[in-house]
Amino acid sequence: MAIIDLFLSRRVRRGRLTVVHHDGQLRTFGTADPAMPDVTIRFTDKGAAGAIIRDPGLGAGEAYMDGRLTVDNGDVLGLVTLMTANDLWEDGAGALQASPATRAIEAITHRIGRINRARASKRNVAHHYDLSDRLYDLFLDADRQYSCAYFTDPANSLEQAQDDKRAHIAAKLALEPGMTVLDIGCGWGGLALYLHQKTGAEVLGVTLSEEQLKVARRRAEEAGVADKVRFELIDYRHVTGSFDRIVSVGMFEHVGTPNYTTFMRQCRDLLNDDGVMLLHTIGRAGPPSVTDKWTVKYIFPGGYNPALSEIVKANEGLRFYLTDVEVLRLHYAYTLQHWYDRTTAARDAIIALYDERFFRMWQFYLAGALCAFKYGGLVNYQVQFAKNRHALPITRDYMYEREQAYRAEQPPTRLQAAE
User: Residue 280: which of 175, 185, 389 has the closest Cα?
Assistant: First the structure.
């Protein structure tokens, strides 16, 4: 029996995986389960299986990207589902981790890679967020919300869930007319424009993506609010002034653990005496760890999803009140399912933009992320902070009341696809 066969026989129990080896030999693993995929894969050369044995995540990702591993029945999401659903985070087996020696090396190199000084941060952001506008139009919602949506019902559309996410966040900010808001990592400007429209707040959005900045500024101009909703290309460490509220969605993953306390201190110092901050970030349900090598290499260089303990520790000693924590468990899995389906449907368009290898990379990225939230140890945290103990009501009722009011109103104008 080949080593890869032994590896798979121990890891695929529920669901059925058929493997066609490069020499034509066929092996089947697991048992049919109506709740699980039935997948057939093919190794097109001898070395692909060995690469997967050495480092399952990196090896499988690269083999799929390069066509050394093909999916003949089912799709790559089915393959990733088979592997991860048989290795639930709750069970603690960690069967898909790299070897201990590989993990030890990665722990050192990853810590170095996530230092994320200002220059490196801009380069890392450009790697992912300065891709073609057309790519993001193909798989995101019309407002280009590139972060976890909020599903009040799993059957909701992606557009509805992203609307509800913005209402959920706005409610936690407890905004009042005339307030000033800093949006750190503002993306294409959708949240900043929403906050101004709903509350009249003046918003400064900051980003390190030149492409996102162009779109955000264009949107503010077209909406006639460029004097109230401004966008700047600036690192959070270099922002000056004072604000009533700070919000950061999907940016903390790029800060780097050595900079967590710097980030928290900067946010506290930028807030007025009655200031409130909301941090929305992907996080780990377990203890601190490292980002898998494939994701760092191909998708998010310098990226890291923090454990809740790391967020709390970064805030300790700053006299910055931790006022609310919410854990969103399956919401990102639902979001990623929409993104994966739209990406797969846009295969020809994405290949025309880039090539087949890029399409496979993007598809594998979304499939892996989806399963990490559905079966693995990733969640989303929404963590609220306040400058003083009196800045917010003493119960959470205000959140529910405001959120319902925002959701009842007409949704804001949608982003038009970039030409």
Answer: 185
Q: Report the run of H or E that residue 106 belongs to, with start and end.
A: helix 100-113
Contact 202, 196 (CB under 8 A): yes
Helical spans, DSSP H, in 200-328: 210-223, 260-270, 293-298, 308-315
Q: Whose structure tokens read 């050595």?
A: 258
Q: In angstroms, rounded to a whole number, what is the distance separating the alpha carbons of residues 255 and 264?
A: 11
Question: Contacts by 357-363 with C-beta closer than 8 Å and gap 24+?
Answer: 357/65, 357/66, 357/67, 360/64, 360/65, 360/67, 360/76, 361/61, 361/65, 361/298, 361/299, 362/135, 363/76, 363/77
Over residues 67-114, the pLDDT tens digits come to 999 999 999 999 999 999 999 999 876 655 544 544 445 554 455 554
Q: Give the HSE-up count for residue 65: Cα atoms under 13 Å, Cβ half-sphere.
A: 19
Taking only the tens place, the pLDDT of each residue in 259-298 is 999 999 999 999 999 999 999 999 999 999 999 999 999 9
Q: Is the pLDDT of residue 56 over 60?
A: yes
Backbone angles phi, psi at 244, to 5 degrees: -80, -30
For 126-168, the three-class secondary structure string (H helix, E strand, C coil) is HHHHCCCHHHHHHHCCCCCCCCCCCCCCCCCCHHHHHHHHHHH
> Which domains are delineated in the chain?
3-97 (no CATH), 112-408 (3.40.50.150)
Among candidate residues 410, 417, 342, 384, the one with its CA nearest the CA of residue 173:
384
- Three-state DSSP at 109 gives helix
Cα separation, 71 vs 43, whole angstroms: 9
pTM of the model: 0.91
| Residue 386 three-state SS | strand
Residues contacting 171, CB < 8 A, separation 6+: 398, 399, 400, 401, 402, 403, 406
**Cα dihedral: 112, 117, 121, 122 (round 10):** -140
Residue type for position 280: H
Q: What angle do CA 302, 279, 313 make, to 5 degrees?
A: 75
Helix (H) or strand (E) holding 117: none
